[in-house]
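Blinded run. Sample ID left blank on purpose so nobody reads anything into the name before looking at the predicted structure. Input follows.
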Amino acid sequence: VMFMGNFNWLQNTEAAQLLIDKIFPIIKEAVPTTRLHIVGQHQPESLTRRASKDIVISNLAEDDIESIIKANYEASVSASPLYGPGGTRLKVLAAMASKLPIVSSEVGVTGLGVTSGREVIIEDTPVGMARAIIDLLKNSKKAEKLAKEAYNFVLENYDYAKIAEKLSQIY
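Blinded prediction complete.
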């Protein structure tokens, strides 16, 4: 399970804390081999001191794109339990483009045009989010199908050529 964010934003820090305190313990009980990997920049000490053998916290440099890409490809599920406003949701799109299944709050995918159960799983409670992640960890076929739909969605809606084509029509 992975969460990425720029921790200058309060909502990303709150989301990471929610993962550590409320969501991950439920997952860990059901799937004991699971590790939580929180990836991002500017992580406050309140998060970095929470690292353990099962909670890996990577504090990346601003331009460390390779580590973010590597984290996406090594993760089994991406979680986005965001509840605060703001942000562009580019990290969610990057996870989708990496063929990674995503479990998110409604706020975490706001504005992307995704449908719960097709490209992502949307759950707004910690227990619901934990159960959805557990389901994906235990059901690889479901996780693969969700990831494939997410990938296709990004290609159809967020590929630069598609965006340029839409903008040309507007102009």
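Unblinding after everyone has recorded impressions. The longest helix spans residues 10-30.
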